[in-house]
């Protein structure tokens, strides 16, 4: 980090480029059908890439939602480990071929297995460049806790193993900013925690690429763009009436959008069905005037320093829950608040 308001970057490949958001449906599945279901979902993702380039603007970066390959349902940890992908693996290689075929970057979320984290379930957002190379893999920074009445999410986030994560990857990786020829990219599937994105902007993030699975606030996405003076996108899944045990209703679907540095809408989805949302990112124009967010830390840094989080970090370092319900029972009593 610089102390004069500037930040590190690499030279831009072009002054402006096209961002496309693939608002596609999801298909969760029974874990016993993992092999065939993963192939079916991958095929749909690859077909969606082809459709994105069939006519109109040619995206320089194509962004998918949080779980285009797996969807979401109440699996156990053992089941999610079974359906998690490897990186690199056959799924990423198939996506990499599309990157090379269309000369585009692709960003997508997925459940991922990592030999360095045996038994843990990772929710990662992957950045692949136009050569099909995995440029970066961003961990989800944190899950919400104490919200659902009878379960907790058991995916392992940075916060859940914070000390071990820092020991393995360094403190800088906690709030990652990937410096690319398209601009400085920060990705996240975490919602309603503006401090995360403020920190990324301080480190030089110029565009937030955010993903969701049916639950996010449009205001949150828009405000983070405006407060930090950068671009921000959100990609949610389309309505998915044949998605396993879920009701055939539109709740929590759609809303893909791109917002500009003043919080203005650059492009927004029209409805909740599958579609491509495209917008121009004037990155050179932004970079010419952009600096770190203007803050007055001396007014409130003592308040932040004294704040105590409701739930402590490192809970999954002590115990890895076996299911959503097991995670819920384990977290009970862990709150540091009254």
Question: Could you describe the 3D structure shown?
Answer:
It is a single chain. It is built from ten helices and twelve strands. The protein has 338 residues and is an alpha/beta fold. A six-stranded mixed beta sheet has the order 5-4-3-2-1-12. The chain has a six-stranded mixed beta sheet with strand order 6-7-8-9-10-11, covered by helices on one side. The longest helix is centred in the N-terminal third of the chain and has 19 residues, at 34-52. The chain is globular, with a radius of gyration of 19 Å. The mean pLDDT is 96.
Blueprint (SSEs and pairs):
Elements: E1 17-23, H1 34-52, E2 61-63, H2 77-83, H3 90-102, E3 105-112, E4 122-128, E5 134-139, H4 162-169, E6 178-180, E7 183-188, H5 194-202, E8 207-211, H6 218-228, E9 231-235, E10 257-259, E11 265-268, E12 275-281, H7 283-289, H8 301-306, H9 315-318, H10 324-331
Parallel strand pairs: 1-2, 2-3, 7-8, 8-9
Antiparallel strand pairs: 1-12, 3-4, 4-5, 6-7, 9-10, 10-11
Helix pairs in contact: 1-3, 5-6
Summarize the entry for a quick read.
By secondary structure, the chain is of the alpha/beta class. The protein has helices at residues 34-52, 77-83, 90-102, 162-169, 194-202, 218-228, 283-289, 301-306, 315-318, 324-331, and strands at 17-23, 61-63, 105-112, 122-128, 134-139, 178-180, 183-188, 207-211, 231-235, 257-259, 265-268, 275-281.
Strand order of the largest sheet: 5-4-3-2-1-12
Number of strands: 12
Main sheet makeup: 6 strands, mixed
Task: Note the beta-strand portion.
Answer: 15-25%
How does the helix and strand content classify structurally? alpha/beta
Number of helices: 10
The mean pLDDT is 96
């Amino acid at each position: 980090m610089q102390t004069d308001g500037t930040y590190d970057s690499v030279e831009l490949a072009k002054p402006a480029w096209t961002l496309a958001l693939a608002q596609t449906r999801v298909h969760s599945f029974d874990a016993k059908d993992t092999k065939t279901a993963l192939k079916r979902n991958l095929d749909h993702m690859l077909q969606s890439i082809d459709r994105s380039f069939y006519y109109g603007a040619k995206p320089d970066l194509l962004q998918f939602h949080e779980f285009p390959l797996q969807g979401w349902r109440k699996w156990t940890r053992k089941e999610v480990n079974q359906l998690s992908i490897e990186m690199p693996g056959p799924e990423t290689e198939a996506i990499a071929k599309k990157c090379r075929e269309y000369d585009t970057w692709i960003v997508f979320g997925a459940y991922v297995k990592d030999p360095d984290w045996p038994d843990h379930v990772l929710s990662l957002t992957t950045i692949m460049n136009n050569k099909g190379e995995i440029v970066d893999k961003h961990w989800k920074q944190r899950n919400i806790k104490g919200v659902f009445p009878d379960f907790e999410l058991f995916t392992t986030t940075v916060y859940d193993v914070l000390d071990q994560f820092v020991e393995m990857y360094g403190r800088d990786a906690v709030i990652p900013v990937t410096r690319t020829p398209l601009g400085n990219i920060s990705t996240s599937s975490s919602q309603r925690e503006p401090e995360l994105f403020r920190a990324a902007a301080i480190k030089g993030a110029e565009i937030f690429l955010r993903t969701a699975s049916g639950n996010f606030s449009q205001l949150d996405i828009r405000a983070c763009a405006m407060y930090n003076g950068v671009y921000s996108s959100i990609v949610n899944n389309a309505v998915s009436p044949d998605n396993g045990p879920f009701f055939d209703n539109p709740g929590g679907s759609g809303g893909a959008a791109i917002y500009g540095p003043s919080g203005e809408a650059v492009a927004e989805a029209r409805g909740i069905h599958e579609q491509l949302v495209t917008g121009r990112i004037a990155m050179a124009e932004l970079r010419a005037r952009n600096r770190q967010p203007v803050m007055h830390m001396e007014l409130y840094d003592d308040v932040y320093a004294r704040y105590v989080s409701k739930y402590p970090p490192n809970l999954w370092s002590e115990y890895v829950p076996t299911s959503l319900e097991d995670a819920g029972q384990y977290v009970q009593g862990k709150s540091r608040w009254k």
